[in-house]
Predict the structure.
Amino acid sequence: MKFTTTINGLAREIDCDPGANLYDVLRALGLKGVKQGCDNEGTCGACTVLIDGVPTLACITPAPKVAGHEVTTIEALGTPDKPHLIQREFVDAGAIQCGFCSPGMILSTKALLDRTTSPSQAEIAEALSGNLCRCTGYVKIFDAVKNAAAAMRKEASDGK
Amino acid sequence: MIRAYHQPKRLDDALALLKQGALPVAGATGLYSTRKKIDAELCDITDLGLGKIEVTADAIHLGATVTLTQLIDADLPGEEGAFLKLVARHITARPMRNAITIGGNIAHAVFWADMPVALLALDASIEIARAGEAAVTVAIADALKGSAPWGNGALITKVVIPLKKGRRFGYERLSRTKNDYAYVTAAASMSVCDGKASDVRVVFGALQPRAFRATDIESDLEGKAISAESIAQAVQKAATDLPIAPNFRASVDYRRDVATALARRAIAQAAGQE
């Protein structure tokens, strides 16, 4: 089946099997930042993308659901030379080890910080509740989110 | 094999597709782990305008495609509202809750589902629509017994939660991690007036394929003064006959012990004793 959607700001025409999930469609477009950890169960969060800004698990989302909506993957955030502020803070805080969970973690963080730049510990825990990390033990990830929030508040107050 | 994916914008169009054999899909969180068994066209029901929450003087009306995140973020009245939000917060994690719908959590009918447990304690009813027929309202307690009133062309369109003054709730669940499926869920509700309990509901989840009310315990407590002793007695009396289906998650004996402990706690909470 065919439908149109917006992926990372670009209008795309998708032609896929009606049973395809969003994960397979994004990977086929070369967007390899979306990962799969739990085999279509929705338990690991490695495939998290944003649909209209809302964290969504690509591996259990029927691809046609994004018709007419906006999909954001990690590829839209920054580049190795010019990382997004959240990516920079994840690196600086040491919140990245193997990196497999990082795209999902960072997109969940973005959705949180787009809502509030002063999240409480509980709000951070809720926002990241669907993203498993098997390396870090989460402390550094919480640090990174708090540092990113502080950096965003500073940017806002500096009037950038 | 998923043969087609329909995305109708009108309820009538969706019902016509369901009548022709299409299967309804909303949040789709259970679709891909079971898709190899599916050979059908799918009808996505999330664009039908069924995602609204309305509050009237005597009820909370939830469209079938209201998500758990919507519930958690909504301003809901009464003990009923607080109870619904509490239960929703216990179901998996944020991105799943962004997708899971109230109707889907009933109709998908996995045995560990938490929302049917809550809806039984709430005395909720569901509205069922079918092509060419007037919508019917079914008490959730009836809907979860026997053959389901949804499926075969029938769609849950709405969940109605009555608001009753003075009703209190209790909720307990045991799982390996907070996000995991429950080994056992227990919920209770009652009104206490002049020290006596009325409209007692005691509900178990994850013991049987569907959540059910423990009517023996309910009738033991109904109209009586509630104390820690009376709660323990009523639960203990029912414990040996509690129907528990074996499953791969934990032994029947273990789940029986857990179920009685959780029921005692949930009832005590509803009675305002904890």
Remarks:
- The domain at 85-157 of chain A is CATH 1.10.150.120 (DNA polymerase; domain 1).
- The beta strands of chain A are 2-7, 10-15, 48-51, 54-57, 70-72.
- The mean pLDDT of chain A is 96.
